[in-house]
Request: fold
Amino acid sequence: MSYPVLYSFRRCPYAIRARLALRASAVQVALREVVLADKPEALRERSAKATVPVLVVNDLEVIEESLDIMMWALQQNDPQRWLLTDDQLIAESKRLITANDIEFKPWLDRYKYADRFPEYPMEYYRGQAEVFLSQLEEVLTRSPFLLSDNPTLADMAIFPFIRQFANVDKQWLENSPYPFLQAWLAKLLQLPLFASVMEKYPQWKVGDPEVIF
Reply:
């Protein structure tokens, strides 16, 4: 049997959210773990951008964006009902995910790698990132997850990036004025689903047996 092929990197938040949706949907793929400094030629041949995640569905279809991979998987099977049906909630979900990807992520990168951006100190970049954290905190005062009593697409698309932010300085976050965000993050980190997508795999090389994920 031939499976779609997912090129992934364990710690990449974009790849994490793609794997979360694939595992939640129970859609099986052949997972190929990529080392970013040594990308396989097979990936470059199927994707001009060659950045993970990339899902090669078949000879004709290649999905190169993590959110598109999530939607592809959930549109086939969504047993946990991550996809919302209320138009207002769908719009709010898109707004939050866009804010995460477009506004928060660049500040997260500067905060995490502040030594590469010496124009400002780490605290400045963290302060800019807090604009989005404050938005999430406000939303989470109304429900235990972003738009519902249970995780939905917005939670799982954003969570890997907040996890990455938290890991830069865990003590700072613990002492920060974001108790609802901290509780939300803790719940998601404890999900068996999350643990299941963080298993370590060796770098894929041509000729290796496929890892069915």
Summary: The first helix runs from residue 13 to 25.
